[in-house]
Structures are given as structure tokens and as C-alpha cells.
């Protein structure tokens, strides 16, 4: 963890290690107790494919499981 400060124009400079690991583009998410920087992939569709490459179920199967879990949770 490192501390950073805004400059006189309101800009935030992230440490080199952070930029090298997560990239140069971020979504700024406002939370009730602060903000969160979420990295934006250069190719969001490719990032999704990589994230879910080991999922063997179809979208319909995943949707049905989620629906059933929500119904079970609702009682």
C-alpha cells in the first residue's frame, strides 16, 4: 500500500508498480465511505473470455442456476 495525494489540478498519480500491474485506465466508483479504482481492460471482451474460460456450463444453465438460487434464497 502506498499513500498518494492530488496535485493542485486535482490529478492523482499512481505509483509505477500499480500502473504496470493494473494498467492506465480505471473506473472511479464512489462508495459511501470512499472511492475505489477498478482497472479497465484494454479489450474488455477478451478479459471476460479469459475470466470465464474454465466455465463449462452454457449461459442458459448458469442463468437457471442463478434463478433457482435466488428463489431458494427468497424462501
Written account of the structure:
- This protein has 75 residues and is of the alpha+beta class.
- It has 2 domains: 1-40, Pemi-like Protein 1, Chain: D (Ribbon); 42-75, no CATH class.
- The chain has helices at 16-22, 44-51, 59-74; strands at residues 26-31, 34-39.
- It has a two-stranded antiparallel ribbon with strand order 1-2.
- The longest helix has 16 residues, at 59-74.
- It comes from Natronolimnobius baerhuensis.
Question: What's the mean pLDDT score?
Answer: 91
Shape: elongated
Tell me the β content.
Answer: 15-25%
Give the distance, in angstroms, between the N- and C-terminal Cα atoms.
42 Å
| Topology, number of strands | 2
Percentage of residues assigned to helices: 40-55%
CATH architecture of the largest domain: Ribbon
- Strand sequence of the main sheet, in spatial order? 1-2
Q: Structural class of the helix and strand makeup?
A: alpha+beta
Largest sheet, in brief, is: 2 strands, antiparallel
Question: At the third CATH level, what is the topology name of the largest domain?
Answer: Pemi-like Protein 1, Chain: D
List segments where confidence is low: pLDDT < 50 over at least 5 consecutive residues: none
User: Which CATH C-level class of the largest domain is it?
Assistant: Mainly Beta
> Count of helices?
3
User: What gyration radius follows from the Cα positions, in whole Å?
Assistant: 19 Å
User: What's the helix-strand series?
Assistant: HEEHH
Can you tell me the number of structural domains? 2
Quick tags:
SpoVT-AbrB domain-containing protein; two-stranded antiparallel sheet; single chain; 2 domains; alpha+beta; DNA binding; 3 helices; 75 residues; Pemi-like Protein 1, Chain: D; 41% helix; 16% strand
